[in-house]
Design brief:
Blueprint: H1 3-22, E1 27-33, E2 37-39, H2 64-70, E3 76-88, E4 100-109, E5 119-124, E6 133-135, E7 137-138, H3 145-149, E8 152-160, E9 167-179
Antiparallel strand pairs: 1-9, 2-9, 3-6, 3-9, 4-5, 4-8, 5-7
Length: 180
C-alpha cells in the first residue's frame, strides 16, 4: 500500500471513529422515580379510585436544568418520554395491580396563566391482570421541553376500584434529551 493510500485509510478510520463517538453527544437519557403513592384499602372494594385520588397527580419532579448540568450540556432542544411504568413497593399489602382497570396520563404546565394545553402522554387500557409492574404506552414524539420549562405536572385519569388491601407503588420514567 502506498503512503498516500495508507494516510487516506487512517484518516477515514479516524473520521469514522470520531463520528461514531460523537453520535451520542447530541442526546442523553435520565430516569426519575415518583414518591411512593399510597392507596388505602376499602373493605367492600367498591369505592371508585377517583374518590381516593382527589388531585389525580403523580408526585414526580423533573428538574431539566439539573440534568443538563450533570451532563455538562448547554441547553436542551427537546425532551421526550421513552418509558413509563408502575411498580408495587415491597411494603405493599396488595400484591398485584388488579384493582386498576385502565389509566391515562396527561402532561400539563404548573403555571395557571400558561398557554400550554394539556396533552395525552401515556396510557394503558386494559391493565393486564396479575401484574406487580406494568408499562404504559407513551407518546414518544411529544416534546416535553415547553412543559418542563414551566414546571411539568403529570395528571392521571384512573378507572378501577379501591383495592381490598393497602397498595403502595411508585411510577418510574425514562426521558431522552436532545441537546443543542
Amino acid at each position: 500500500m502506498t503512503p498516500l493510500k495508507t494516510s487516506a485509510t487512517i484518516a477515514m478510520t479516524l473520521f469514522g471513529l470520531f463520528f461514531i463517538s460523537c453520535a451520542g453527544v447530541g442526546s442523553f437519557s435520565f430516569s426519575e422515580e415518583s414518591e411512593e403513592i399510597f392507596v388505602e384499602a376499602s373493605p367492600l372494594g367498591s369505592t371508585p379510585l377517583g374518590d381516593l385520588f382527589p388531585d389525580a397527580r403523580i408526585p414526580m419532579e423533573v428538574n431539566l436544568e439539573e440534568e443538563l448540568a450533570e451532563q455538562d450540556a448547554s441547553g436542551a432542544r427537546a425532551v421526550y418520554l421513552r418509558e413509563l411504568y408502575f411498580e408495587l413497593s415491597e411494603e405493599s399489602d396488595k400484591r398485584t395491580f388488579d384493582f386498576l382497570d385502565d389509566i391515562t396520563i396527561h402532561v400539563a404546565s404548573r403555571k395557571d396563566d400558561s398557554e400550554l394545553s394539556e396533552a395525552e402522554l401515556a396510557w394503558r387500557d386494559p391493565i393486564p391482570e396479575g401484574q406487580v409492574r406494568f408499562d404504559l404506552e407513551v407518546d414518544d414524539e411529544l416534546d416535553l421541553k415547553p412543559f418542563a420549562e414551566e414546571g411539568m405536572r403529570l395528571n392521571t385519569r384512573v378507572a378501577g376500584s379501591a383495592p381490598s388491601q393497602d397498595a403502595r407503588f411508585k411510577v418510574y420514567a425514562t426521558f431522552r434529551v436532545r441537546v443543542i
